[in-house]
Every structure is written in structure tokens, then in C-alpha cells.
Design goal:
Layout lengths: L1 H9 L4 H30 L6 H27 L3 H23 L7 H27 L6 H35 L2 H69 L3 H5 L6 H8 L2 H17 L3 H26 L1 H43 L1
Helix pairs in contact: 1-3, 1-7, 2-3, 3-4, 3-5, 4-5, 6-7, 6-11, 6-12, 7-9, 7-10, 7-12, 10-11, 10-12, 11-12
């Protein structure tokens, strides 16, 4: 999706080909990754989790949800933010309708029925979004020639996003396998509340993504960092406020989620300040991506993903969900420091190149 946005920013007329190419790539990637996840799930997932349920969730999240994301990214690339937001809202709305239907007793809520409802509603949203996006943006023959040329950069984007998913979500699955499903549910609930609080920042930076690519094409990393500084005040300011609200409202978690989630109060208080860390982290990461340094960002994300898995293997059996909390905080803080170091080093390298060019011109 990021590659599609970059290509559309560079050449607006290619939007039809880029949208079709991204949809095709999404389908192929989902097929490959889904197959791998199904194989790995036999030792990562809890024993009482049926393969059918895993398959339904994979279809919904790896393929159908990503189709919605591709259409939304197409609208973002051409600055049609209302349509981009409508894609995401529609997806969540139909899922909410399924949850309401289960709540009022229209169907029995079991793990299997929930997974079917989840994938079915996601399919409905994906169909509607693709049809509307094809009408609004155009859908032409995929640009396979450019796809081949861009494949190395596409791999960098995909590996980076996969690594991000690992250090964001693998701990939930590992808690269910290495600790208990109760601990996994408690930690996941607290993490999701933190993630919901961070949604406005993620939305703002998602909308700003085309500008990062524009700035990077014009002036490199210095230009993208300058743009990031303009976004830092609202992004980090909001994140600080949100973290304090989460800490203050953490005792309400058991009221909302149920008495069995009493310990979610403590987990949420620990995780709350990740909103601030992640705001700064995303600003640096998007600055690197916009300036053409996605490869360096991806390497950092891979390292953190590996570290996160290693820490979880060590800490979860000893400390259950508390170990997962410690692992998340350490990994996110370390990623922020690594990205800062990469940005500082890259900026010095760019400045050195500019200085050399100026010296050469002066000598002539």
C-alpha cells in the first residue's frame, strides 16, 4: 500500500494500474502468508483453537481487510480523505452489526460462529469498497512490468509491515501458548484499549503519508524530518494526554470488560505511555520511508521483531502477561532509539554528500 501511494504521488495518472496491481499483490501475498501461518499455528496457537477458526480469521485479516486497506490507500494517495475514512468505517460498522446480532441472540455466539460472522462481514465490506473504488478511481490492467521493477522495494515494505505485526501481535498468541488463555485475553484487552487511544495519531499520519513522499522526493530526509516536526506537536501532545487519560480511567476496565479483567487495570497503566513512544516512533519511521530509506527502517523492524519473540519466550513462562508488557515496552523504546540513530546518521550522510557537491562546484 505504501508503495502504491508513492507511485501514485509520483504519477497521478497511473492510479488505475496501481490499484489493480496492489489488489493482485495482496491476493498473492495473502495466499502465501496464510499458508505459512496455518503451518506455524500448530505449535504457536493454543491446542483448543480449531484450524477452521484460524483459517477464517486469516481470510478476513490477511486478505479481505487488506483489500479494504488498499482501496483506502488509493483514496489517501489522491487526498480524498473522506472516502478513505469511509472505507475503514464501513469495515468496522459491518463487524459491529454482527456483534450486535450475536448480542441480541440472532445466532449462538461460539468461537466457530464468531469466526464465520467475522469473515462474512469483512467480505461484505471488501466487495462494497472495491466496487466503489473501481468506479471512483478506475481499475485498469495491472502494471506487472512496474511491479517487477518495484519488487525489491515492495519486499522491503512487506517485510517491514510483517515485522511490525510480529512485535505488535505475536505476544498475544505466545501468551495463549506459553501461559494461559486467560492471561492472553487480559493482556489483549489492555493492549487493544491502548491501541484504540492511539488511533487518531495513526489516522493523522496515514493521511500525511503522501506528503512524506512528496517532501522526500523534493529534499530528502531533511525535508521529511522538517515536515514531521510540524506534525509532532499535535501527535505527541495528543498522545501524552491520551496516556494520562488511560491511566486515570484504567480502573474502569473491569467495569467495561467484566470482573474477570480486574488485572487489566494494571496492564493498561503500564501500556498507556506506549502511545507517546509510538507517536515519536511513527514520525521518525515515516520520515525515513518518505525519503527513500525504507530498507533501513525495515532492518530495524526485523531486529525488534526477533528481539520481541526472544524476550517473550524468556519472560512469558516466568511472568505471564507481565512479561509480555515488559517485552512490549522494551522493544518499542529500543525501536525508537534505533530509528533516531538511523535518522541522525542518514542526515549526516546526506549533508556530507551535499557538501561534497558544493565543494566540487566551487572548485570549478
Amino acid at each position: 500500500m505504501q508503495l502504491m501511494i508513492r507511485n501514485i504521488v509520483q504519477k497521478r495518472a497511473s492510479i488505475g494500474e496501481q490499484l489493480a496491481t496492489s489488489l493482485l499483490a495482496t491476493g498473492l501475498s495473502a495466499l502465501a502468508l496464510g499458508s505459512v501461518v496455518l503451518l506455524v499455528s500448530s505449535w504457536v496457537a493454543p491446542d483448543n483453537l480449531p484450524v477452521f477458526v484460524i483459517a477464517m480469521i486469516l481470510v478476513a485479516d490477511l486478505f479481505l481487510s487488506r483489500i479494504v486497506d488498499v482501496a483506502s490507500a488509493g483514496y489517501i494517495a489522491v487526498r480524498r480523505m473522506k472516502r478513505a475514512a469511509a472505507c475503514v468505517v464501513l469495515l468496522q460498522l459491518v463487524r459491529l452489526m454482527a456483534a450486535v446480532a450475536a448480542f441480541i441472540g440472532l445466532f449462538e455466539m461460539t468461537l466457530k460462529s464468531w469466526s464465520v460472522a467475522y469473515s462474512t462481514t469483512t467480505l461484505l465490506a471488501a466487495i462494497v469498497v472495491v466496487v466503489v473504488a473501481a468506479r471512483d478511481l478506475g481499475l485498469r490492467r495491472p502494471d506487472l512490468a512496474r511491479y517487477k521493477r518495484d519488487a525489491p522495494l515492495g519486499y522491503q515494505f512487506s517485510v517491514g509491515l510483517a515485522s511490525q505485526s510480529i512485535y505488535n501481535d505475536i505476544d498475544k498468541a505466545m501468551l495463549g501458548s506459553l501461559s494461559t488463555t486467560a492471561a492472553a485475553g487480559l493482556y489483549t484487552a489492555a493492549f487493544r484499549l491502548m491501541d484504540v487511544a492511539f488511533t487518531p495519531v495513526r489516522a493523522m499520519l496515514g493521511a500525511a503519508e503522501p506528503r512524506f513522499f512528496e517532501k522526500g522526493g523534493q529534499g530528502g530526509l531533511r525535508a521529511t524530518l522538517s515536515y514531521a516536526r510540524k506534525l509532532a506537536t499535535p501527535a505527541i501532545g495528543y498522545s501524552i494526554l491520551a496516556s494520562f487519560v488511560l491511566v486515570a480511567c484504567a480502573p474502569l476496565a473491569p467495569v467495561v470488560l467484566g470482573a474477570s479483567f480486574a488485572e487489566a487495570t494494571l496492564a493498561l497503566r503500564f501500556l498507556a505511555f506506549l502511545t507517546v513512544v509510538r507517536a515519536a516512533q511513527y514520525l521518525l519511521a515515516d520520515s525515513l520511508t518518505g525519503a527513500g530509506y525504507q530498507g533501513r527502517r525495515t532492518v530495524a523492524q526485523i531486529c525488534i521483531a526477533v528481539l520481541n519473540v526472544g524476550l517473550n519466550v524468556w519472560l512469558i513462562p516466568l511472568y505471564s502477561w507481565q512479561g509480555a508488557v515488559v517485552s512490549s515496552i522494551l522493544c518499542d523504546a529500543l525501536l525508537l532509539l534505533i530509528l533516531w540513530a538511523i535518522a541522525a546518521w542518514t542526515l549526516r550522510s546526506e549533508d556530507a554528500v551535499v557538501s561534497e557537491l558544493l565543494d566540487e562546484r566551487t572548485s570549478f
